[in-house]
Amino acid sequence: MIFTIAKATGWTEEYILWLPLRRTLQYLHAAWLSEGVATEWRSVSEEEAAEAHNLFNRLKYLTKHG
To answer: Mind giving me the DSSP string for 6-59?
Structure first.
């Protein structure tokens, strides 16, 4: 992941590691698209979505948005 972003942007490893994870994943996705790598979101079951939602609710107080 770090190599792909560094190759696409010229940024250092240290700079990339300090980026928020959400933004890092967006840059990675963009780098893959620019290299012609097909990407897609996998479908999740209702159970998996509920599990993720419950986890988010338990952890959101740890963020500045909670």
So the answer is: HHHH---HHHHHTS-HHHHHHHHHHHHHHTT----PPP--HHHHHHHHHHHHHH
Eight-state DSSP code of residue 66: -
**Phi, psi for residue 41 in degrees, rounded to 5:** -80, 135
Mean pLDDT of the chain: 86
Which residue in 51, 55, 31, 38 sits closest to 23, CA to CA? 31
Higher per-residue pLDDT: 63 or 66? 63
Sign of CA dihedral 55, 61, 62, 64: positive
Q: Tens digit of pLDDT for each residue in 48-63?
A: 888 888 888 888 777 6
